[in-house]
UniProtKB/TrEMBL annotation, chain A:
Keywords: ATP-binding, DNA damage, DNA recombination, DNA repair, DNA-binding, Nucleotide-binding, Nucleus. GO terms for cellular component: Rad51B-Rad51C-Rad51D-XRCC2 complex; Rad51C-XRCC3 complex; replication fork. Belongs to the RecA family. RAD51 subfamily. GO terms for biological process: meiotic DNA recombinase assembly; reciprocal meiotic recombination. This is DNA repair protein RAD51 homolog 3. Residues 84-273 form the RecA family profile domain. The keyword Secreted does not apply. Involved in the homologous recombination repair (HRR) pathway of double-stranded DNA breaks arising during DNA replication or induced by DNA-damaging agents. One of its GO terms (molecular function) is four-way junction DNA binding. PANTHER family: DNA REPAIR PROTEIN RAD51 HOMOLOG 3, DNA REPAIR PROTEIN RAD51 HOMOLOG 3 RAD51C. It is found in: Nucleus. InterPro entries: DNA_recomb/repair_RecA-like, HR_Repair_Mediator, P-loop_NTPase, Rad51_C, RecA_ATP-bd.
TrEMBL record, chain B:
PANTHER family: DNA REPAIR PROTEIN RAD51 HOMOLOG 4. It comes from the Eukaryota. InterPro entries: HRR_RAD51_Paralog, P-loop_NTPase, Rad51_C, Rad51D_C, RecA_ATP-bd. Pfam families: Rad51 (PF08423). One of its GO terms (biological process) is DNA strand invasion. Coiled coil: none annotated. Residues 38-217 form the RecA family profile domain. One of its GO terms (cellular component) is Rad51B-Rad51C-Rad51D-XRCC2 complex. PROSITE patterns: RECA_2. This is DNA repair protein RAD51.
């Protein structure tokens, strides 16, 4: 777009800039004689300049295979990529089913709910499940856990990792050679070593760690999941200027979207709830305001349905809204039916 | 006016008009016949919305869809992309700011298009349609401006070879990239928002493209929701539609907030297929 990048002599370039021609588009429809008159140069030199302009613009569009913009991919190519994509299991088969296989990579998923519903449990479960080796149907990747509230318990992560390994070995009891080599990797300590933990104590640290994540993820290319637990905590109490908060959060979410797309990983944000006065009554909605609700690709709301915990998909571009019950057990997040299966075998 | 008077008028105006100006002066009759012949309606694929808009998205105009979260904005964009390519209007460029472009969902829409086709034809039709929808992710306003400039330059210099030409440009959602920069003490953000608006309108008008953008809603007075991006953005789209949740899972209601040709306030129901 810039005149300064054209392969022309510096004297002609300075004449162009002093006459006000700064972009290629301003030169796109001038005749050579007019340009020669404007710049007080010879006609041949003006023709040279215009040829350089047209060469630059045509070479730019020639480099793009589709002729529109560089980097655009057709939906057909994306479809084949998407079909080969693995999803992160949540531990509960019903929830995986309504999510279309699990948590999607390259997307930002927001999970919100009342305190005690199991958000942190789900976060830790995902951090463990993302590490399930590829041979057992998982992604074989690592996780980044950004803790803002201090609710991550290493002992609980140990329990959940143990439960996950126990269930995998139960499901795949075969002793063939490839499974044997993976079995060595199925150690609880390996799973715990695969979770990179950041403890954040203020909103500035939160913004800083998200800015730093790009460098971190370039170094650690096997990270497939970033969890922020919770994204709300520091933004609820310290911010006086709500408009600025909205702007900062908007920028934050765009950066997370970019990270998820660039590094092909899933971003899961855990959110708290607040009450909102709509239609004459107070209702529970996710915190951080209306603008934030547009910043994620998917939204899952965890709520109580009587005595049961339920997950409801409120927003998703590819799956319809649906609800699924889940349990928080000693081994982690599980579906309703998995317990019954165990009981029947016994 | 007689022809000689017209020529005289034009020649008197000519010195004041910069020699770079490419767009010629047109009379009302010429504009009307151009509109009738060239400015087609591109279907969104959703009957209620197409009927409300008098056929669909107008070429040469910027249509904005506003709505609360999960009201169907992305689905309308995906459906429009599918139907426009299916009816051979040309290529579609989808600029995505929230990783919501779902190829799987597009394939669902394609499968609904011609349910009676045999399997092999369906597969080739799927590939043809999806190969004409281009998607690019945009995560900040500078990248968006850059991309739009590039699109404009490419369109100016492309000679139509009989292949597909860009006919629909979708930005989902334009408010995600603009909202973080506007507000605050600096007025730079408002300038950039205006630049985006002017660029979109220029691309739409000069190259006969329909532009579809989505916007989100923010809290207004008394707890009601209003479209984001403020008063300055209101004038930029030619047509504004408000989507709201309907009674069922895939149902919704559209209201016309602003239109260049018809009265606002008209509503219609629409259903998004599975």
């Amino acid at each position: 777009m810039e005149i300064s990048n054209l392969p022309i002599s510096p004297s002609i370039r300075s004449k162009l800039l002093s006459k006000g021609y700064t972009s290629l588009s301003s030169l796109s429809s001038i005749s050579p004689s007019f340009l020669a008159q404007e710049l007080s140069v010879k006609l041949e030199e003006a023709v040279e300049v215009l040829r350089a302009v047209s060469d630059t613009t045509t070479s730019k569009s020639a480099h793009t295979p589709n002729g529109i913009i560089p980097g655009a991919v057709t939906a057909w190519d994306m479809l084949s990529e998407e079909q080969m994509q693995r999803h992160i299991s949540t531990g509960c088969e019903d929830l995986d089913a309504i999510l279309g296989g699990g948590i999607h990579c390259k997307e930002v998923t927001e999970v919100g709910g009342v305190p005690g519903i199991g958000k942190t449990q789900l976060g830790i479960q995902l951090a463990v499940n993302v590490q399930i080796p590829v041979e057992y149907g998982g992604l074989g990747g690592k996780a980044v856990y950004i803790d803002t509230e201090g609710s991550f318990m290493a002992e609980r992560a140990y329990q959940i990792a143990e439960g996950c390994i126990y269930d995998i070995l139960d499901k795949f009891p075969s002793n063939s050679r490839e499974f044997l080599s993976c079995k060595e990797r199925l150690q609880v300590n390996n799973f715990l070593a695969g979770i990179f933990y950041f403890r954040i104590c203020s909103y500035t640290e939160q913004i800083a760690v998200i800015n730093y994540l790009e460098n971190f993820l370039t170094e650690h290319g096997d990270v497939k999941l970033v969890i922020i637990d919770s994204v709300t905590f520091h933004f609820r109490q310290d911010f006086d200027d709500l408009a600025q908060r909205t702007r900062v959060l908007g920028g934050l979410s765009l950066r997370l979207m970019k990270l998820s797309k660039m590094f092909n990983l899933a971003v899961v944000l855990l959110n708290q709830v607040t009450t909102k006065f709509t239609d004459g009554s107070f209702q529970l909605t996710l915190a951080l305001g209306d603008s934030w609700s547009h910043s994620c690709t998917n939204r899952i709301i965890l709520h109580w349905n009587g005595n049961e915990r339920c997950a409801y998909i409120e927003k998703s571009p590819s799956v319809p809204s649906a609800s699924a019950p889940y349990l928080v057990t000693g081994k982690g997040i599980r579906g309703i039916n998995s317990n019954f299966k165990r009981a029947r075998i016994m | 006016m007689m022809d000689t008077e017209k020529e005289d008028f034009k020649s008197r105006l000519a010195p004041d008009v910069t020699p770079n100006r490419q767009l010629p002066w047109l009379t009302g009759i010429e504009l009307l016949s151009d509109t009738n012949q060239n400015k087609h309606f591109l279907p969104t694929g959703l009957e209620g919305i197409d009927a409300l808009l008098g056929g669909g998205l107008r070429q040469g105009q910027v249509t904005e869809i506003v709505g609360p979260s999960s009201s169907g904005k992305t689905q309308v964009c995906l459906s429009s992309a599918t139907h426009v390519v299916d009816r051979n209007f040309g290529m579609v460029l989808y600029l995505d700011t929230s990783n919501s472009f779902s190829p799987f969902r597009i394939s669902c829409f394609v499968n609904q298009l011609h349910p009676s086709l045999p399997k092999e034809l369906k597969e080739t039709s799927l590939q043809t349609i999806m190969s004409n929808i281009y998607c690019q992710s945009v995560f900040d306003i500078f990248a968006l401006l850059d991309l739009l400039h590039h699109v404009e330059t490419t369109l100016k210099h492309t000679v139509k070879l009989g292949g597909s030409k860009l006919c629909l440009l979708i930005v989902d959602s334009v408010s995600s990239v603009i909202a973080p920069v506007i507000g605050g003490k600096n007025s730079q953000g408002w300038c950039m928002m205006a630049s985006v608006g002017v660029l979109l309108k220029r691309i739409a008008y000069e190259h006969n493209i329909a532009v579809l953008v989505t916007n989100h809603m923010v809290g207004g007075e008394n707890g009601t929701l209003k479209p984001a991006l403020g008063e300055s953005w209101k004038g930029i789209p030619h047509i504004r539609l408000l989507l709201s949740h309907g009674t069922g899972n895939n149902r919704g209601t559209t209201t016309v907030l602003k239109h260049t040709l018809m009265a606002s306030g008209r509503t219609a129901n629409f259903v998004i297929g599975n």
